[in-house]
């Protein structure tokens, strides 16, 4: 089915930047593990999805397509308006690198969770436990 520009625009307006189902799944998992966090702190570069202030750690939850992950879903490029999407994803990736470097220079540890990584909950829990485990002194 070919979409009209109006329907495509409506669909794109509905794409959320925060409180996505992916983000909510990870937030519930982390909360159930006993960790507490702050959301989207505007005073930090990139407004990380989850912030653990006492640990000086932040977590970004990235959609594979939107941030150009190297998995099957992330490597997909739309057939229409290809040039626009390639530039858009490249800008997102450049911004992600810049924000991660800025956070690290401020003394924050950064972990990125990709959309495709939430399928294996045991591995995700292990990774989160290792990242959040001990307080940074």
Verbal overview:
The protein is an alpha+beta fold and 137 residues long. It has a single domain (16-132), classed as Endonuclease, Chain A, CATH 3.40.960. It has helices at 5-13, 21-32, 64-67, 82-105, 121-132, and strands spanning 38-39, 50-52, 57-62, 109-114. It has a four-stranded mixed β-sheet with strand order 1-2-3-4, sandwiched between helices. The longest helix is centred in the C-terminal third of the chain and has 24 residues, at 82-105. The N and C termini lie far apart (56 Å). The model has no long low-confidence stretch (mean pLDDT 89).
Helix-strand blueprint:
Blueprint: H1 5-13, H2 21-32, E1 38-39, E2 50-52, E3 57-62, H3 64-67, H4 82-105, E4 109-114, H5 121-132
Parallel strand pairs: 3-4
Antiparallel strand pairs: 1-2, 2-3
Helical content stands at 40-55%
**H and E order:** HHEEEHHEH
Gap between N and C termini, in Å?
56 Å
Share in β-strands? 5-15%
Largest sheet: 4 strands, mixed
Looking across the biggest beta sheet, what order are the strands in?
Answer: 1-2-3-4
Number of domains: 1
In the CATH hierarchy, the third-tier topology is known as Endonuclease, Chain A
Number of strands: 4
As a whole number of angstroms, the C-alpha radius of gyration is 16 Å
In short, what is this structure?
With 137 residues, the protein is α+β, with helices and mostly antiparallel strands. It has 5 helices and 4 strands.
List keywords for this structure.
alpha+beta; globular; 4 strands; 45% helix; 137 residues; 5 helices; four-stranded mixed β-sheet; single chain
């Amino acid at each position: 089915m070919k979409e009209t520009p109006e329907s495509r625009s409506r669909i794109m307006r509905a794409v959320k930047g925060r409180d996505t189902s992916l983000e909510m799944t990870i937030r519930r998992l982390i909360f159930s593990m006993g960790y507490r966090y702050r959301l989207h702190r505007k005073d930090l570069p990139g407004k990380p999805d989850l912030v653990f202030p006492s640990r000086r750690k932040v977590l970004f939850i990235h959609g594979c397509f939107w941030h150009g992950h190297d998995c099957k879903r992330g490597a997909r490029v739309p057939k229409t308006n290809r040039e626009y999407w390639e530039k858009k994803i490249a800008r997102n990736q450049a911004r992600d690198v810049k924000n991660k470097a800025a956070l690290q220079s401020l003394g924050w540890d950064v972990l990125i969770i990709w959309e495709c990584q939430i399928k294996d909950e045991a591995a995700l829990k292990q990774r989160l436990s290792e990242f959040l485990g001990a307080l940074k002194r």
